[in-house]
């Protein structure tokens, strides 16, 4: 049966500056490019049939660097808005430390980690999960049912939302879940698309 690999993009300039990024289209830092290549090196024994990323450049470039590292540049790539990061609304572009000073740590924690807490004019993690899981079911799962090997390069909250679905995580578990930049998660799947094995590289 096929396998599914989830990778968070490498460090972006916004990650480095400690700002809320969301749908802001920002580049990778040199460290982020190195993290993408390191993810590719970890996946050196994998061959992919299909690859998916968001339409944001930090996701697309991470995927490009991974495939270059693997010498698999001809793998079909699908970029989708549905795989974009959580939309942080009016917090986008704001420094996280300054936002904590303005609103307090508990409120910012709820906006950042809460499943049902929406930043001002932004998405809850629940809303993010709905669009990501719908795309997964419509576009990615059919490929996996055919036994294809699939790579998805996306964003921290997007992948938290998808992992909640794939791993049957509780709200408390997903709120506590941290995914590092360049982090790699592998799922070996049964024909029913349940994970017979899952692990980080």
From TrEMBL:
Q: Which residues form a coiled coil?
A: none
> Does the record bear Isomerase in its keywords?
yes
- EC id: 5.4.2.11
**InterPro entries hit by this protein:** His_Pase_superF_clade-1, His_PPase_superfam, PG/BPGM_mutase_AS, Phosphogly_mut1
Q: Give the highest taxon in the source lineage.
A: Bacteria
Reaction(s) this enzyme catalyzes, per UniProt: (2R)-2-phosphoglycerate = (2R)-3-phosphoglycerate
Task: Enumerate the residues marked as the site Transition state stabilizer.
Answer: 155
Gene3D superfamilies linked: Phosphoglycerate mutase-like
Record keywords, A-Z: Gluconeogenesis, Glycolysis, Isomerase
Binding-site residues for substrate, renumbered to this chain? 8-15, 21-22, 58, 85-88, 96, 112-113, 156-157
Q: Does the keyword Isomerase apply?
A: yes
Its annotated pathway reads: Carbohydrate degradation; glycolysis; pyruvate from D-glyceraldehyde 3-phosphate: step 3/5
Q: Which residues form the active site?
A: 9, 85
Family assignment from sequence similarity: Belongs to the phosphoglycerate mutase family. BPG-dependent PGAM subfamily.
NCBIfam families listed in its UniProt record: pgm_1
Q: What does this protein do?
A: Catalyzes the interconversion of 2-phosphoglycerate and 3-phosphoglycerate.
Q: What is the protein name for this chain?
A: 2,3-bisphosphoglycerate-dependent phosphoglycerate mutase
Protein source organism: Hymenobacter lucidus
């Amino acid at each position: 049966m096929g396998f599914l690999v989830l990778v968070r993009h490498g460090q972006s300039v916004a990650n480095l500056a400690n700002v809320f990024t969301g749908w802001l289209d920002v580049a990778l830092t040199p460290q982020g490019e190195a993290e993408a290549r390191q993810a590719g090196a970890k996946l050196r024994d994998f061959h992919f049939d299909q690859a998916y990323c968001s339409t944001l450049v930090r996701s697309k470039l991470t995927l490009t660097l991974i495939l270059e590292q693997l010498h698999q540049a001809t793998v079909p790539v699908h970029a989708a808005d549905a795989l974009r990061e959580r939309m942080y609304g009016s917090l986008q572009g704001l420094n996280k430390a300054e936002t904590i000073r303005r609103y307090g740590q508990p409120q910012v924690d709820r906006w950042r980690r809460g499943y049902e807490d929406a930043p001002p004019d932004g998405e809850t993690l629940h809303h993010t999960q709905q669009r990501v899981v719908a795309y997964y079911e419509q576009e990615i799962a059919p490929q996996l049912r055919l036994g294809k090997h699939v790579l998805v390069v996306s964003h921290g909250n997007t992948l938290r939302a998808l992992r909640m679905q794939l791993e049957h995580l509780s709200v408390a578990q997903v709120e506590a879940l941290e995914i590092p930049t360049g982090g790699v998660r592998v799922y070996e799947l049964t024909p029913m698309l349940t994970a017979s094995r899952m692990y980080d590289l």
